[in-house]
Amino acid sequence: MSKFLQGTMILIVAGLITRILGFVNRIVVARVIGEEGVGLYMMAMPTLVLAITITQMGLPVAISKLVAEAEAVGDRQKVKKILVVSLTITSILSVIFFPTMILLAPFLSRTLFTDPRTYYPLIAIAPVVPIIAVSSVLRGYFQGKQQMKPYAYSQLLEQIVRISLIAYCTKALLPYGIEYAAAGAMFSSVIGEFMSLLYLLYMFKLKKSIKLRTKFIQYVKAGKETFASLMRIALPTTGSRLIGSLSWFLEPIVVANSLAMAGVATTLATKQYGQLTGYALPLLMLPSFITYSLSTSLVPAISEAMAQK
Q1: Three-class SS string for 206-271?
Q2: Are 170 and 185 in contact (CB under 8 A)?
Q3: CA-based R_g, the chain, Å
């Protein structure tokens, strides 16, 4: 079986299991904190996705393509440059957007979302920005090498850890208020992503093909050409994803304010938003893991084939 087909099958199976676990996760959250809590949880999620989209800057796709091209001609130094420059970019952006999320949380929760209780989920999820930023670089690297198992297993690990913690965290914090329980659900996601990152770092170190610490500063200083190559791919990718992320970011703002103008109470509006985004939409998006798996495998496979010609 070719690397492309093998990688695609691994991602499809992992994607299916991840989606099933995701539904289990939503069932657990809904059982503990109810529709209103799910509404608070889902209102904070688009802000996180927007911050991650800007922080990643479409780099996973760019890294995957450039690493595949470099691997095709056996240029390990280029692979190292790609990783060093990518980690530098995501680290700088994480330093900017992590505190920005925390500083903007009061304004977002009280003014835009019309429900001050969303403040706690926003604060709880903010630490995941730098974690996902670093893990996205490593995932792009493994995808570029067409090693899909680390990426697939990291997704499964993240979901398993999240589900394991979410029931405990939400139940433990529910007596303090539903907003704290929603924040506990968010923080479970942070721990899940952190464990996923640790696994990716372990797999990266296990391969021992590249030592990033060697001449790290020199590669950063001499990384203008690599930076330009990454941006040529990353910026158009970011543009398309940014439109979707901005639309989703505006969705809870528009829905919450529209319901408020219609005379719907804040708690009821939050509950109705939870019904829409926590239950209905995930069912509609279920089959998307198949196309995502194909696109993830196709980018490095095509890039490698083009580089070898």
Answers
A1: HHCCCCCCCCHHHHHHCCHHHHHHHHHHHHHHHHHHHHHHHHHHHHHHHHHHHHHHCCCCHHHHHH
A2: yes
A3: 20
93 has a pLDDT exceeding 80:
yes
Average pLDDT, the chain: 81
CB 107 within 8 A of CB 172: no
Whether 234 contacts 57, CB under 8 Å? yes
- Rounded CA separation 102/73 (Å): 44
Yes or no: say if 134 and 197 are a contact pair by the CB < 8 Å rule.
yes
Q: Tell me the C-alpha distance between 85 and 212, whole Å.
A: 11
**Would you give the distance in Å from CA 96 to the centre of its chain?**
17
Around 240, how many Cα atoms within 13 Å sit in the side-chain half-sphere?
6
Q: pLDDT tens-digit profile of 39-58?
A: 888 888 888 888 888 888 88
**Residue among 224, 83, 194 at smallest CA distance from 144:** 83
Contact between 75 and 111 (Cβ < 8 Å): no
Single-letter amino acid, residue 48: L
DSSP tag of 109: I
Spatial separation of the C-alpha atoms in residues 25 and 69, rounded to whole Å? 38
Interacting residues of 170 by C-beta distance below 8 A, sequence separation 6+: 28, 29, 32, 33, 37, 181, 182, 184, 185, 188
In whole angstroms, give the CA distance from residue 57 to residue 93: 9
